[in-house]
Amino acid sequence: MSTQNKLWFKNWPPEVPKQIHCPNISLQNILSHSARDYPEKTAIVYGEREITYSQLEAFSNQFANALAKLGVKKGERVAIFLPNVPQFIIAYFGALRVGAVVTTISPLHREREVEYQLVDSGAETIVLLDSLCPIVEKVGEKTKLKNVIVTRLNLESNPPDISNVLCFEKLLNQNINEPVKVEIDPLEDLATLQYTGGTTGTPKGAMLTHSNLLLNALAFAAWIKGAMAQETFLTALPLFHIYGMTTSMTVPIHLAAKMVLMPKFEPAKALEIVQRQRVTVFCGVPTMYSVLLANPELGKYDLTSIRVCISGASSLPPQLQNKFMQVTGGFLAEGYGLTEASPVTHCTPVDKTMKTVRVGSIGLPLPDTEARIVDLETGEKTLKQGETGELAVKGPQVMKGYWNSPRETAMVLREGWLLTGDIARMDQDGYFYITDRKKDLIKYKDYSVYPREIEDVLYDHPAIKLCAVIGKADTAAGEVPKAFIVPKEGASVSKEEIMAFVNTRVAPYKAIREVELRKELPISSAGKVLRRLLAQEEKRNCLLHPYLPSEQSS
Questions:
Q1: Would you say residue 120 lies in a domain?
Q2: 49: which strand partners?
Q3: Model pTM score
Q4: What is the C-alpha separation between 74 and 402, in angstroms, rounded?
Q5: Number of C-beta neighbours around residue 510 at 10 A
Q6: What integer pLDDT is reported at residue 550 of this predicted model?
Q7: How many CB atoms lie within 10 A of CB 147?
Q8: Up-side HSE of residue 303: CA atoms within 13 Å toward CB?
């Protein structure tokens, strides 16, 4: 055991095991176990509809059999292009049952982004809302898609009448409920291909196995001290994102908990759901907690059912943390993770007896997880307590690598250690603190925005010679994308034209909020634009001129 491990073991949360026993089972079996032990327990609440665990198990079996009948085989990619609706969960576990690999796509993505993921993953089957069909129709010929399965927001509504596609609801009505028998090696076989910009900004599929996702869910459930068949989760984080997928879907299913689905986070509705459903667990991001507390009618809701909330994706302001705990009486813990780690690696101990919460700390590593601070130059030398370097993690939740990207995989995986790209330090008690980001990613609310992806779009504009995108501080969103542009000689282009050009080609959360035209940009000796210098300059300007919320950041 390393010295660093011993440091945090002395602060280990009570009732949480340091190691988690993981049965050698595939991920979909957690649903089978909950359906077997708690068949009549409510699994999903969606609007006025409730689905029990036995019904959810039957639906996923029916969908698995439908996929098998369509010829979907083990290892093939099934894309899920849905918001937080019951069909997402049914399709997810149904695909796993046939041994398929799930790749989830944000419903906010535009044609260019959807096409890239479908082509790179090699998906041959996709499940999507009828409203998203136009996107798939436009990119379909460039992909390997064979099966297009369409549904509507309301699972009980009339099936969509669209030619050349399959109807999700009709596939569930085939009354074939027998489990599909496929041999799966939990340690080796992939469950998901989860796309992330990683450390370079180019979207890559993180290869996550059944064991990666299962062990992370078991460790997180133990960390929050989840009570079997007694919890109610508010599932408002998007399920297509790994944070929501693990903490707000896989974990509650393992605990046979009730999941209240929100396709879109609406503060007033969320408060009403917490009161009416007596929500006990809510995983979110700082902006979610901020808008809940800012609701003018906050005082009329009874939020005392909340036992624990987790905040991730960006740093949690201490004032927000303290006020939320005062209002609800629950415990709001800050955590940390990344797609490449399924995603959770660290979290503040969930313990109301703690006299003080360590402000700014992401807490301690989860069970079975090791963490250390390494030098920024080589990533090989372990630094001492208090020294600042790159955070490296090691554990059963760490991915196998990036799909079709051996070079990028070798850059971040070193003898089982994952280099996170985040700059951090560890204090004398083993608590970790993120101090900066080695990578240039922009944190817009709970979304990661990678500058290079937006820059690639900008370079498609005929009038742009050079460009760079950075994150500009914003009180409402955390950061918003700002573009620096050098036009080509003799070219005439306006800021508004550039913004319109980009913002119709990327998801709304990636939209550029500000453009600055320049004659030149700082360039390195290797010919690369120095984003960090632009970011430092922007930061100095913000200190001289306190920033206001962006008009489009809400």
A1: yes
A2: 46
A3: 0.84
A4: 19
A5: 25
A6: 43
A7: 18
A8: 27
16 within domain boundaries: no
Indicate whether 53 belongs to any domain: yes
Give percent above pLDDT 70 in the chain: 92
Q: Which residues contact 110 (CB under 8 A, 6 or more apart)?
A: 135, 504, 505, 506, 507
Q: What is the pLDDT of residue 477?
A: 86
Residue that terminates a domain, selected from 185, 207, 238: 185
Q: How far apart are the first and last CA of the chain?
A: 47
Query: Phi/psi of residue 454, each to 5°?
Result: -70, -40
DSSP string, 386-430: T--EEEEEESTTS-SEETT-HHHHHHHEETTEEEEEEEEEE-TTS
> At 472, which CATH number?
3.30.300.30
For residue 399, name the pLDDT band (cuts at 50, 70, 90): very high
SS3 of residue 550 by DSSP: coil
Provide Rg for the chain, Cα atoms: 23
CA atoms within 13 A on the CB side of 443: 18
- What domain range includes position 63? 28-42+49-185
Asked if 379 contacts 414 with a C-beta cutoff of 8 angstroms, the reply is yes
Q: Which residues of 512-536 are buried (b: 16+ CB within 10 A; e: fewer)?
A: bbbbeeeeebeeeeeeebebeebbe
Number of structural domains the chain divides into: 2
Q: Per the domain annotation, does 219 fall within a domain?
A: no
Here the CATH number for the domain that contains residue 98 is 3.40.50.980
Candidates 381, 293, 309, 378; CA nearest to 348 is 309
DSSP state for residue 141 in the 8-state scheme: G
Q: Which two tokens stand for residue 280?
A: 């006990």
Q: What is the pLDDT of residues 50-69, one digit of tens each?
A: 999 999 999 999 999 999 99
